[in-house]
Amino acid sequence: MLTDVAQTEGAEPDPVLDAARATVLDFGISRATLTEVAKRAGVSRMTVYRRFQDAPTLLRALMTREFGAVLIDAQDDAEAVEDPLERVVATVIGGVSRLLVQPLLLRLLEIEPELLLPYLVERLGEFQKALRAGLTAMIADAQSSGDVRHGDPTELAATIEMICRGPVLAARTLNADDREAIVGELRQILVSYLS
Fold first, then answer.
1. What is the spatial distance between Cα 48 and Cα 45, in angstroms, rounded to a whole number?
2. What does the pLDDT look like over 69-106, one tens digit per residue?
């Protein structure tokens, strides 16, 4: 399930990742060197280097933690929804709604959007893989009860993940009214697609 995302870097507070987050939010990626992160975390550079071989590795771990936490929260909120189809939709909508205002994502889109490009055109990130795996399991469960249409759950999950990319990547261009409208339309798309 989506809870696997949080376990990738651990759900406990992490001084190094917390320092990396603060550095990126304050100065952007270019100043998020391992030296700067170590200084902010109050640890030696070697402590950071033992865990992360370079700044890109650290950034990937940070994105996995931050974006994964958003999806964990969305899944937790959706657990109370009894209808399996509505639970899938509520999880996706909850995740997208949170990502649209997620500070790290907004900062990356603002200052260095090209860093996200490989996750759109070259490869899937750990976050995307975990999202797809979690959605696949939720969709398969909803199919077994007859609440979601037939089809390969892996393909359905991959399609949903790709559908959600557009609004998430447009987050900086959206005001509160736009976000609400787009999330409402996305909900309709998901219900129609999965029914």
1. 5
2. 999 999 999 999 999 999 999 999 999 999 999 999 99
Structural tokens at position 116: 């996200």
Using alpha carbons, select from 71, 67, 68, 96 the residue that is nearest to residue 181.
Answer: 96
- Other residues' Cβ atoms within 10 Å of the Cβ of residue 122: 7
- CATH classification of 3-9+64-194, choosing from 3.40.1000, 2.30.110, 1.10.287, 1.10.357? 1.10.357
What is d(CA 186, CA 93) in angstroms, rounded to the nearest whole number? Answer: 8
6, 127, 147, 175: which is closest to 81 by C-alpha? Answer: 147
d(CA 60, CA 33): 13
* Matching residue, tokens 């205002």: 101
Q: What is the pLDDT of residues 29-77, one digit of tens each?
A: 877 889 999 999 999 999 999 999 998 899 999 999 999 999 999 999 9
> Is-contact 164 187, C-beta < 8 A?
no
Helix intervals (H) in the chain = 3-9, 15-27, 34-41, 45-51, 55-78, 84-99, 103-111, 118-121, 126-144, 153-169, 176-194
pLDDT for 186 equals 97
